[in-house]
Design goal:
single chain, about 0% strand
């Protein structure tokens, strides 16, 4: 347990060191979260308007699907960033393995970065969406209206989906990297 905690601390330090490289994944995830929160905040109004036009269920599903797709594109960007990180840190991983650090703390250290990037992006996007929703509701600019409950669900879904998807898309490259024999990692040209 202590080694896992050390792995997480090491991952936090590494993430702080690479903060600039995380700007694009954070921004992409924030964009998806922003859209998802706004769509879910206006979902009941969209459904009511769509019902008047017909095909309410199909329109609502399409709008939510588009928002979730944008959110997942951001998380995939986080996974691509993780893969680049693993490639650039090959020798470092070899040193950790050669000094006897077990695989779980190394994997935990490597997963910190994608989880922080995706959750931070989701939170930033959700905050921007909540602010935008408040302005839309106050000014009446959203013809469909903005639901506080729908917005809250959107925030929760955006953050949870981002965190789970970041782990799901990043676990394989990090596990593979942590499983390489130290001699291969140390002799790598990366």
């Amino acid at each position: 347990m202590n080694q896992l905690r050390l792995g997480l601390a090491y991952g936090l330090l590494s993430t702080r060191r690479r903060a600039g490289a995380l700007a694009l994944p954070i921004l992409t995830t924030a964009t998806g979260a922003f859209l998802l929160v706004l769509v879910l905040g206006m979902a009941s109004g969209i459904s009511a308007q769509a019902a008047a036009l017909g095909h309410a269920d199909a329109i609502e599903r399409a709008v939510v699907l588009i928002a979730v797709t944008v959110l997942l594109v951001g998380v995939v960007e986080v996974a691509v960033s993780t893969t680049r990180t693993v490639v650039h840190r090959t020798r470092e991983l070899g040193v950790l393995s050669a000094t006897g650090v077990p695989r779980p703390p190394v994997v935990a250290a490597l997963l910190v970065e994608p989880v922080i990037a995706s959750v931070l992006g989701a939170v930033l996007g959700a905050v921007a969406a909540v602010g935008t929703a408040a302005v839309l509701a106050a000014t009446g600019a959203a013809a469909s209206g903005v639901s506080a409950a729908g917005t809250a669900v959107g925030v929760l879904v955006a953050v949870l989906v981002s965190a789970v998807a970041a782990v799901a898309t990043s676990i394989l490259p990090t596990w593979r990297a942590a499983s390489r024999p130290p001699i291969r990692s140390l002799s790598s040209g990366a």
